[in-house]
Write a structure and sequence with these properties.
The structure is a single chain. With about 525 residues, the protein is an alpha/beta fold. Helix 7 (about 270-280) runs parallel beside helix 10 (about 470-485), helix 8 (about 300-320) runs parallel beside helix 9 (about 350-360) and helix 10 packs across helix 11. The strands form 4 sheets. Strands 1-16-15-14-13-8-11-10-9 form a 9-stranded mixed β-sheet, sandwiched between helices. The longest helix has 19 residues, at about 300-320. Helices cover about 25% and strands about 20% of the residues. The chain starts with a strand and ends with a helix. It is globular, with a radius of gyration of 23 Å. It has 2 domains: about 30-155, no CATH class; about 185-435 and about 460-490, Rossmann fold (3-Layer(aba) Sandwich). It has helices spanning about 30-35, 70, 75-85, 120-130, 140-145, 230-240, 270-280, 300-320, 350-360, 470-485, 495-514; strands spanning about 5, 35-40, 55-65, 90, 105-110, 145-155, 180, 200-205, 215-220, 225-230, 285-290, 300, 330-335, 365-370, 395-400, 420, 425-430, 445, 450-455, 465-470. This is Peptidase S8/S53 domain-containing protein.
């Protein structure tokens, strides 16, 4: 079995020797700028006196996440705005935007009161609020409701190198385990006709509108396709777009190319398609609910991931309440995450609440452990190491294995990782329309009409399949094992959250026993 469990229960273990920038993805300036991102480097930022020094993370410098209770309480909002005013910055509360009303935070723009945008920085603003001692100072309970918005990432990089974006190495080390086009000659496993299917929610880059390996329909159609998308959700998500990056207002994986004149295939284009293909190969009888919340450069916004998780939970609750149009799922798989700036490895914010809401509904969450070769907790996967509510479904934090079942060099590893699944050198589906500007090194005429002789084209994915590596792909492999184990005890819809959680734990126990 290509799934190996840790020999201990997931837990957090402080590592005082860990570098403060460990686990922070290395991103190009252009990528950061596209999303209003900034790297929090502990030695280069304002620090709050009397508090533990932060550790590195990536955040949006002109946005803060503010609890809905503050936005909707006139007195609390005025008090917050009054405390911010002396800093030279202000919150545009009128532009605050929730993805799911009634759940989670609002994303609120931070602007300069004096028109100097160079002085806008969400981290500095938070530190000034925490050190203020004047009449306008805020109580701790209100401060706890105002936090950074993290940029989340699917992996360290993309391209045809092993998670680095670099080309294959020369000489005897030239072999690459990264994203390269291949062909698949084995047929996809048969998909049976069933009255009810287990469903898995995939929060990622989306899927193509068509692919020979799976069919796709919109949720409103009520069809029994392998993939179901949600145009209504995507339209709502697009309405709240507030970055220079293209809005995620439709469910389709794209755009194909990087936003430059080079014409190269974007680093994470096809990411969600690849995950979908893994599920199609391993669990052909399930149904995938695809929510597009990740951009083609691998980045996503904490606020939107939280909103998508609550959207999934809303659908589950509505279905159990008798809403025939609601779309309930049985498992959630996440291939994105972030490292938190809290030095004690205990993150703040609303992500944990969104994950906990799902597990309390009896829905297990399977999350990638990250590709930074670090032992630093990567969230939301690392919530597997936190104390779980009674009668809640499991959280699985998944690292990556090489094909020989040794842990992949790029994979994160630590006591908070609960299991490892094959995540290097996997073959899966890829959008057929992906063709970049990189061409074969050599091409010559052939005696066959309309055919050339050419060397390997690393940027032409018209075959519809690719090899790729990452914990992003180990997570759906682990999820497929879990789904198959759940199916052994039946696929009927369970209304009781406790019984749903018991079914998930029983399936997990069977996997561990094998």
């Amino acid at each position: 079995m290509r799934l190996v469990f840790a020999d201990h229960e997931p837990h957090l273990k402080p590592n005082p020797r860990r570098d403060h920038m460990s686990g922070v993805p290395e991103l190009a300036y252009t990528t950061l700028d596209r999303h209003g991102g900034r790297v929090l480097a502990p030695g280069q930022v304002v620090r709050t006196a009397g508090r533990s020094a932060p550790v590195g993370t990536i955040y949006r410098y002109d946005r803060l996440l503010v609890d809905e209770s503050v936005i909707n309480d006139d007195e609390a909002r005025r008090r917050l705005e009054g405390a911010i005013s002396p800093t030279g910055m202000s919150l545009e509360s009128g532009s605050a935007s929730p993805i799911v009303s009634g759940q989670g935070p609002y994303r609120v723009p931070v602007v300069s009161s004096h028109g100097d945008q160079a002085g806008v920085d969400a981290w500095s603003l938070l530190q000034r609020l925490r050190t203020s001692t004047g009449d306008e100072s805020l109580p701790e309970d209100l401060l706890a409701k105002v936090r950074l918005e993290h940029l989340m990432i699917c992996s360290k990089g993309g391209g045809i190198g092993v998670g680095t974006g670099e080309p294959p190495l020369p000489g005897p080390h030239k072999h690459s385990l990264g994203r390269i086009p291949v062909d698949l000659v084995a047929p996809m496993p048969e998909r049976r006709k069933l009255d009810r299917r287990l469903r898995v929610a995939m929060l990622d880059t989306g899927v193509p509108s068509r692919h020979p390996a799976f069919d796709v329909s919109d949720r409103s159609e009520g069809r029994d396709t392998f993939v179901v998308v949600d145009h209504a959700f995507q339209t709502k998500l697009g309405e709240y777009n507030d970055s220079p990056a293209p809005p995620l207002d439709d469910p389709w994986d794209g755009p194909v190319h990087e936003p430059t004149l080079l014409g190269e295939v974007a680093s994470h284009f096809g990411h969600g398609t690849f995950i979908t293909g893994l599920l199609r190969q391993m669990s052909p009888d399930v149904q995938v609910y695809s929510l597009r919340v990740v951009h083609n450069d691998g980045l996503s916004y904490e606020h939107e991931i939280i909103g998508a998780l609550h959207h999934v939970a809303d659908q589950i609750e509505a279905a159990r309440g008798g809403d025939a149009e609601a779309f309930a799922v049985d498992v959630v798989v996440l291939a994105t995450g972030y490292v938190d700036e809290a030095a004690d490895d205990v993150p703040g914010g609303w992500m944990g609440g969104a994950v906990e809401r799902l597990t309390k509904l009896g829905v297990p969450v399977v999350a990638a452990a990250g590709n930074q070769s670090s032992d630093r907790p990567f969230y939301p996967a690392a919530f597997a190491a936190h104390e779980q509510p009674e009668n809640a479904a499991p959280i699985m934090s998944v690292g990556a294995l090489n094909p020989n079942l040794e842990i992949a060099m790029f994979s994160n590893e630590g006591p908070w990782v609960s299991c490892y699944a094959t995540g290097a050198g996997l073959v899966s589906t890829y959008p057929c329309e992906a063709a970049g500007s990189l061409e074969p090194e050599r091409r010559s005429k052939s005696s066959m009409r309309n055919r050339y002789r050419e060397s390997y084209d690393f940027d032409d994915f018209s075959s519809g399949y690719a090899v790729w590596s990452g914990t992003s792909f180990a997570a759906p492999v682990a999820a497929a094992y879990l789904l198959n184990a759940i199916a052994e005890s039946g696929v009927e819809e369970i209304q009781d959250p406790v019984k749903a959680a018991e079914r998930a734990h029983a399936a997990l126990a069977r996997l561990k026993s094998r």
